[in-house]
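P.,

For your records, the input lines for the assembly:
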Amino acid sequence: MVGTRRWLLGVCLCAWAAAHAGPRAEVIHWWTSGGESAAVKQVEQAYRAAGGTWVDTAIAGGDQARAVTINRIIGGNPPTAAQFNTSKQFLDIIEEDMLNPVDDIARRDHWDAVLPAPIVDVIKVRGHWYAVPINIHMQTWIWYSTSAFAKAGIAREPASMDELFADLDKLKSAGLIPLAHGGQAWQEILLFSMVLSNLGGRDLYLKVIRDRDQAAIHSEAFRKVLVAFKRLQGYVDPAAPGRNWNDATALVIGGKAGMQIMGDWAKGEFIAAGQTPGRQFGCLPGLGKDSPYLIQGDVFVFPKTDDAATLRAQKLLADVVERPAVQLAFNKLKGSIPVRLDADDSQFDACARKGMAILRDPRRPVGVAEVYLTPDQNGALQDLLTAFWNTNMPVERAQNSIASALRY
Amino acid sequence: MATRSLTRATPYAALLPMAVVAVLGYLGAGLWTFYLSLTASRTFPSAHVIGLAQYHRLFDNERWMLSLHNLAAYGALFVLASLVIGALLAVFIDQNVTGEGVLRTVFLYPYAMSFVATGLVWQWLLSPGDGIDSAIRALGFDGFRFDWIVSQDHVIYTVVIATVWQASGLVMALMLAGLRGVDPEIWKAARLDGIPAWRVYAQIVLPMLWPTVATVLLLLGTAVAKLYDAVVAMTQGGPGIASEVPAKFIMDHLFLRSNVGLASAGAVVLLVPVLALLAPYAYARSRKEAA
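Structure tokens returned:
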């Protein structure tokens, strides 16, 4: 008898809890390193404070996390929300009609006005908004060591590709590693994007990467870009192949190397080493004051569901992520910048403030290669660039191979 | 009567689960892969058939062509080296050396390690400035350089070194089992005739081990076709794309690059040499059984 009463009490409590629990969101993401997980905790806390329950499914490695998300969507057991890069990675899922749009929140918050155009182009498909952007990374910052620059007698930041090469020569004759580089394919495409956007300019960049324009790829201007890209290899030390990006950053931090071209996540390494922007190291968003600013970032997508409770959980998450306070808290820890052009920049460091100012100039932000290319086009380009960088492939052949790879 | 037919049905019933797995899992999946290779499938399988366009694209892809080239060079060297080293080790142990048990374990031990662990260990050993490179310089050979793992032209040989180290122990074990099965009378007869031991091995014993060698070749051949994890652990296909292999191309396009169609075309192409290796073997077996 007592047993039955207890059992009934248990049932009642459970039913009560189920009826009163807020929206419950299972979120797949790959923010697993120290700074990243601290950043995502901010979103989690905000979601809890808004009355939701956050179920954290962190999977190390973006590739693995995305594979799990796609497999679970196909298998009919999708998470409430999942992270992707701001890119074409999730375009196929949209085309298969497997994502819930978040149009009402996008309209309410005027995303058309407050988000940079390259981000809007990716998340808005045929008039519907399919992803909630959380941050923006700029991938091709030039980080330099002020002590190395002083040692080499470099008085001011380079403002053109020619000045950059002149500075690299000075660093070389000063006995330093001119360019710190990690010889991995993704770092090589990043370096190439920097040369293409700064030397080739915004128009050539968009023609080649966005439009995959055969004439532009076969042009003399693009040939010059490839030559300059390959020329950079002469300023890299022999131990570069296979090196991780943060080990290359450590060379700049220690003053052994002059500069590194890397995304804004490298800033965290300088800060962790106790350095201050403008003092021990400098950050340069591009060559010259109108240089294109190559952006990407992360988004959450919401797999399709008819379940009312899950829909509520998705809506709440979309709402929370886009709140200015959450944007600030997340991005300060992540090292990226808020997606909202109207965000308050007073709490960010000097480098991030430079980036946020540039972002408000509509002529400067463009997407990185992944924003315009499908994953396999981007992969094919990456294969060719890393082969060109590492071998004696003639520049004409590289040009032809890139043209034929981007034809598909 | 009923009992007899039941007795005859039992083995078939026992084979049924395996048969179902083979037909659905291997044959079915193989046909499905072939079908997908004819479609425009991207992240998801698609029913939009585009004929042989994926194959056309595949053979227009520099990385795929280099992968095939690497696989051929790797395959020839790996099979030959594993076979020779494994056979020599087996012959060596067959001389009734002292501590045979210990040696057998030592030689077979690498096979117990995963390809990933093997790859990582050899990556450290071969990395210039560390491992073998610096150890030999520390011995006083100042000019010694061993930087194959970062060299465009030599990196694929480092994969051969690591995988031969791992596989030759298994070859030894199989060959040793074969050698121990040789009739001792043959050895006695050869000794009476005064034939030197190496000639007995080369001209009598090893030819007798042909079925064992065929098994070894089959095992090594499949290891070549599926080469993936050792490359991922050792070089990640680099420097550049110098050590890319077909299985890695397929895996990359299946998952990271969201192109199921192109990956399937690659998988079908990779199946062709496997069948080419397997067909003569199966044919020889069936003829032998018929005889």
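Two observations worth noting. Residues 25-138+296-365 of chain A form a domain with the D-Maltodextrin-Binding Protein; domain 2 fold (CATH 3.40.190.10). Confidence is low (pLDDT under 50) at residues 8-20 of chain A.

Regards
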